[in-house]
Amino acid sequence: MRQRRVKDELRDNLITRVRGGSAVFPGIVGYDDTVVPQIVNAILSRHNFILLGLRGQAKSRILRALTTLLDPQLPYLRGCEIHDNPYEPICRRCRELLAHNPDDAPIAYLTSEQRYVEKLATPDVTIADLIGDIDPIKAAKGGHELGSEYTVHYGLLPRANRGIFAINELPDLAGKIQVGLFNIMQEGDVQIKGYPVRMPLDVALVFTANPEDYTARGKIITPLKDRIGSEIRTHYPATIEEGIAITAQEAWTVRNGHQLQVPNFVSQVIEQIAFVAREDKRIDKRSGVSQRLPISAMENVISNAERRAIRWGEKLVVPRIGDIYAAMPSMTGKLELEYEGELKGADAVVREIIRSAVARTYDKYFHGNASMNQVVQWFDLGGEIQMRDSASAQEMLHKLRGIQGLLDKLSALGLSGKEPSEMLVSGAEFILEGLYAHKRIGRSEERTFTAGEKQPPRERPRMREEDDEVPDLRRQRRPFN
Predict the structure, then answer these.
(1) Among 113, 353, 421, 437, which residue's Cβ finds the most Cβ atoms within 10 Å?
(2) Positive or negative CA dihedral for 59, 61, 67, 68?
(3) Choices 3.20.20.140, 3.40.50.300, 3.90.950.20, 1.10.357.20: CATH for 6-233
(4) Nearest-5° Cα angle at 139, 138 to 141
(5) How far is Cα 121 from Cα 166, in angstroms, rounded to an integer?
(6) What is the structure's pLDDT at 412?
(7) Are 87 and 3 spatial neighbours (Cβ–Cβ below 8 Å)?
(8) Which residues contact 54 (CB under 8 A, 6 or more apart)?
């Protein structure tokens, strides 16, 4: 019976999946034309590979998705710590078992998920954790010498035999531990407590790392980098639409009790926050802005809207822009600020980022599409309105109807005016926030919208009285000799 090695198994099953036209990694959004083809090439090449990218770029999820390319079940010798192949065992116990009593060797089966072993690299990880150590208790109970293979307590890497072994944040692993890792990767042998132990493991090794870690906390030693076949860089979503798709897939939005309807412009503002933050000079570019920010923000925004609906007995939960400001606690902790941002404060920076995100989203709907002069004029004539995120939809809609021409502009948002009051209030508040973001109207910290501050007309600078006595040197030119 022919026994495939793990990398051949991954390769064969990948070829079948690609030939069938199905997605290689279902649920991974935005990588179809960039990251996924490189991973496919690495697997077809039977490479160990590393994913390089900032936090929140689905690196761990991709590695865990590799189990879908493994066979559903794999036979092994029951009781073996390293899941030995029944036909080609490598540990001493299994070799002796098949040599003396092959008919008595029991067979068990591993699922594809059980063949995936993951370890988060930290500076305190030891060779014993990864490779193994001598167990004196085994030696005492079995009457074995300490140098016998029967006394070895295997680490994570041998226990991943015939499977996938993943190490997250590889640069955090101490250099001397990395040495033991590349040795067993290439040569298949290692010394445990000074005793040579031959372990020709069958394992696919995959890693993740943050590029920042190469200089901040550690580095990957050169011999180990040389043994990693492919280095693949991940990235954040390239478009707002991709980000919205990821957030919709990952965020907890299916709640019990109330019907939820998230307006498109609210989803776009939440996703735009991450894009604006990644460009902001006050945010540390080396740390990045994780995709977890819009995911957590969406969940918090929905919760604030849900709290309002529970308070007023509303059956429909519709988030507003005010709910995004209420969800700031889910954003501030995910941003690493530069010195300038630290001076200003996380709350102030996030408020400005939200305002910029609202302005960009507003421009998509109303740039050159509709005039807001009538609405702005209402505020210029002394009108004001307070948009409390805790107020009911009926109460706010009654106040918003008093703003001349405001509800007529909702058609640009795809609202005809016949929608539930919760949707109309959300759309109207978005328009007001957009006007405030463009400084056409003002707003207080209590979210009371008023007339914007009018800039005084720029006056022409006047000459000082003594300047009038300054002679005109151009009229007193001396003749050129």
Answers:
(1) 353
(2) negative
(3) 3.40.50.300
(4) 65
(5) 10
(6) 92
(7) yes
(8) 210, 211, 212, 234, 236, 287, 288, 290
Distance CA 436, CA 430 (A): 10
Euclidean distance between CA atoms 317 and 351, whole angstroms: 24
Tokens of 237: 């979503």
Query: Could you say which residues of the chain have pLDDT below 70?
Result: 1-2, 136, 139-148, 183, 187-197, 213-218, 368-370, 454-481
Structure-token pair, residue 366: 């109303």
Nearest alpha carbon to residue 375 among 385, 367, 365, 364:
385
173/119 Cα distance (integer angstroms): 11
Q: What is the residue-wise DSSP string for 232-252?
A: EE----SSHHHHHHHHHHHS-
Rounded Cα–Cα distance for residues 396 and 429 (Å): 9
> What letter would DSSP give residue 403?
S
For the stretch 415-462, pLDDT in tens is 988 899 999 999 999 999 999 999 999 999 899 999 987 555 555 555
Question: What would the two tokens of residue 242 be?
Answer: 């991709």
Q: Where in the chain is the domain with CATH 3.40.50.300?
A: 6-233
What's the confidence (pLDDT) of residue 188? Answer: 59
- The answer to whether 75 and 65 have CB atoms below 8 angstroms apart is no
Of 218, 129, 164, 156, nearest in space to 48 by CA:
164
Token pair of 54 as six digits? 């900032």
Place of tokens 């639409």: 241
Q: What pLDDT sits at residue 475? A: 45
User: What pTM value is reported for the model?
Assistant: 0.85
Packing angle between helix 292-312 and helix 264-279, nearest 10 degrees?
Answer: 140
Q: Which of 17, 14, 9 is nearest to 39 (CA)?
A: 14
Q: Which residues are CB-contacts of 191 (< 8 A; sequence separation ≥ 6)? A: 197
